[in-house]
Amino acid sequence: MMKPKRARLIFGSITALWLTVTAPLVCAAGGDLLWEDRFDLTGGFDSAEAVAVQEHRLFVFGQGQVPSVNGIEDFDWIIRAYDRLSGTLLWQDQVDGGLDIAENARAIAVHGRHVLAVGAAGGNGDGDYWVRAYDANTGRLRWEDRIVNPAGSETAADVVIQGQKAFVVGTRVKVYDVKRGTVIWEDPEGSGEAIAISGNTMFTAGSRNGDFSVRAYHSKTGVLLWEDLSDLSGGQDTATDLEVHKDRVIAVGSAGDFPNRDFVVRAYEPKTGALRWEDRLDLGTVDEATAVDIKNRYAYVVGRVRPSGSSDFIVRAYDRKTGALRWEDTVDFFGGNDIARTVTVAGGQVFVGGSLQEAGFSNPGIVVRAYDAKSGGLNWMDQLVAPQASGIKGIASLGGQVHAVGSLSLDFLVRTYAANSGRGCVKTKGDFRKWDTGKTVKKKHHKNHHERHHGYNHDDDCDDDEKHHGKHKEKGHHKRHYSKHHDDDRNDDHQKR
Fold first, then answer.
1. If we measure between CA atoms, which residue out of 166, 202, 158, 200 comes closest to residue 478?
2. Which H or E run includes 164?
3. What gap in Å lies between CA 418 and CA 33, rounded to an integer?
């Protein structure tokens, strides 16, 4: 049920500089809840896992639990499209891929009229690699690709759309014609957890044979340009996310077998793959980086560290060129296990989502925090402790709003906040996206949006050509779905299905 927050509406003529705005504005302080969608499909465990935003529309991808058959847990994919400003549901698709707990929603991307959702579907007792392409306006299925591998489980983990191509990585790399679904090229050995595009180069990050893996391909031909395959610990090393901006590819993840992991950040030269800098934290047992976003000079990495008996929520801002640490925020909320899972940067702020836990309680709650991108100062935050499993899995920002998705007490959750750091007004209709403290900003066409890379910074002069959209992180950007990557993490964070 939609639960819009009461907000003051201003009607009439409002003059900002020399422009006159006549459509209604919702005025709110930063962090105020503008609207929320929370639903329970059939009484089971439902969760939103990924988010993508484009102009006035918001696309959320997750899964919902349906009644079991013969004692087998069954989950359906759920894709929901909203009016981004009002929260009105525009269309929904619920699809059953088969009876299997391996059915996971992983990532979603939007570009023009194309929406792609990727993940795994149950089949033959193992997961199948599954890609579904929708019409963004109507929700009509345009094409799908499903790989059933009798030899083992398959999954699609991340997706980016660039121009007329859709790039998907998982247990293999596949590049599609986004309109028709025909395969342009494929690398069956190119497994990964995350993908990023810059110009004619596609980068993937993951784990190969237990080693930290980053690969660069020619995006048109599929030719492998370079690979970094590093054994960082002698155990299981994994890159969980990566971003590219101008002269740096930054991959983040962990090194070592659970629970003895290190937090890892590695920065590469995009053309050659040369390692430019590395940061590694070993503060206790479970230290790991889960997601990254880059804006201009800075790279923002989130995750968790465990200096004592419980894990702490951590955000670190680096100089992307040198690796120098600019600021850090480490938070132990209530003495339990906390983790930052997803990050996106927009409008001079860093938005981070994750979960928190009270000591002595098994189920985590949700947390969203907004930082000043330069100083690391906390602008606002939202946190809820719930009686059942909860957490934020994806985050996106555009046009004065922040969209956080995940689960709250086993329910599918979408929460939309006012993004501004102070008090301002967000226009609900018309040609202007933002009115804030005396100036009106015209909406800007934004071509490719991914769950890790949603929105733009009105105050920045950086080149849009250097940005990678399409996620992200969602990305975020986008930009990640960390509880889906590691079974032992679900146990550690008490987020069992």
1. 158
2. none
3. 7
What's the pLDDT tens digit per position in 188-225? 989 999 999 999 999 999 999 999 999 999 999 999 99
Q: Which domain holds residue 314?
A: 8-492
* 470: its two tokens: 């399409």
Question: Both tokens of residue 25?
Answer: 């504005």
Residue 358 resides in a domain: yes
Q: Note the pLDDT of residue 423.
A: 67
Taking the C-alpha atoms of 116, 352, 303 and 232 in order, what is their torsion angle to the nearest 10 degrees? Answer: 60
CA atoms within 13 A on the CB side of 195: 34
Question: Is 2 within a domain?
Answer: no
Q: What is the rounded distance in angstroms from the CA atom of residue 169 to the CA atom of residue 192?
A: 6
Rounded Cα–Cα distance for residues 213 and 226 (Å): 11
Q: Is the pLDDT of residue 488 over 70?
A: no
Number of independent structural domains in the chain: 1
More confident residue, 270 or 445: 270
pLDDT number for residue 491: 36
Reference 347, options 30, 7, 6; nearest CA is: 30
Is residue 312 domain-resident? yes
What is the distance between the alpha carbons of residues 181 and 197, in angstroms, rounded to a whole number? Answer: 19
- At 285, which amino acid appears? T
Q: What is the CATH number of the domain that holds 467?
A: 2.130.10.10
Average pLDDT, the chain: 82
Per-residue confidence (pLDDT) for residue 495, from 0 to 100:
33
Q: Which residues of 253-264 are buried (b: 16+ CB within 10 A; e: fewer)?
A: bbbbebeebbbb
Distance CA(260)–CA(77), nearest Å, equals: 34
Pairing of strands 325-331, 339-346: unpaired
In a domain, 133, yes or no: yes
Q: How far apart are CA 17 and CA 437, in angstroms?
A: 10
Residue 476's DSSP bridge partners are none
The closest alpha carbon to 411, from 365, 359, 460, belongs to 365
What's the CA gap between 131 and 167, in Å, rounded?
11
Q: For the segment 233-243, what is each residue's pLDDT rounded down to a tens digit?
A: 999 999 999 99
pTM: 0.82
The pLDDT value given to residue 284: 80
The amino acid at residue 136 is A
